[in-house]
């Protein structure tokens, strides 16, 4: 018989919380498997730094422009800029868990518009 239970995971660094379904096959805890369900999320655009994506191991096919539910995005600003907002976001059922952060100059305090994006449009 298949039993389901919901657990809450809280990351210690940013205190972002989200809920995950755990599938329990048998009674042993070693048989817990994370359910890979939910809609994929679009890739994040217009961030003026670097985004690292950590995706779950999946067998489901996801379009190249989308990221699987369960993916974690980690935001890193370019040198001389500090992150304003959450440093990571989680994809769950087609939505990201946080708003897109900004990169703020450590010298002026002004937010950086995505110079990489605007420069590529001028070419």
Automatic annotation (TrEMBL):
Pfam families the UniProt entry points to: Sushi
Gene3D superfamilies xref list: Complement Module, domain 1 (2.10.70.10)
Domain Sushi: 39-105
Entry keyword Transcription: no
Spans traversing the lipid bilayer: none
Domain of life: Eukaryota
SUPFAM superfamilies: Complement control module/SCR domain (SSF57535)
Keyword Ribosomal protein (UniProt): no
PROSITE patterns per record: SUSHI
InterPro entries for this protein: Sushi/SCR/CCP_sf, Sushi_SCR_CCP_dom
Sorted UniProt keywords: Disulfide bond, Sushi
CDD domains in alphabetical order: CCP
Protein's recorded name: Sushi domain-containing protein
């Amino acid at each position: 018989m298949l039993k389901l239970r919901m657990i809450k995971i809280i990351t210690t660094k940013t205190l972002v919380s989200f809920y995950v379904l755990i599938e329990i096959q048998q009674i042993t805890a070693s048989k817990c498997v994370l359910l890979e369900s939910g809609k994929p999320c679009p890739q994040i655009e217009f961030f003026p730094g670097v985004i690292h994506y950590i995706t779950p191991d999946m067998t489901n096919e996801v379009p190249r422009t989308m990221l699987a539910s369960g993916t974690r995005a980690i935001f890193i600003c370019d040198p001389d800029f500090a992150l304003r907002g959450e440093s990571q976001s989680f994809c769950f059922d087609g939505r990201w868990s946080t708003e897109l952060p900004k990169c703020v100059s450590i010298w002026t305090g002004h937010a950086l518009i995505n110079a990489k994006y605007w420069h590529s449009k001028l070419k």
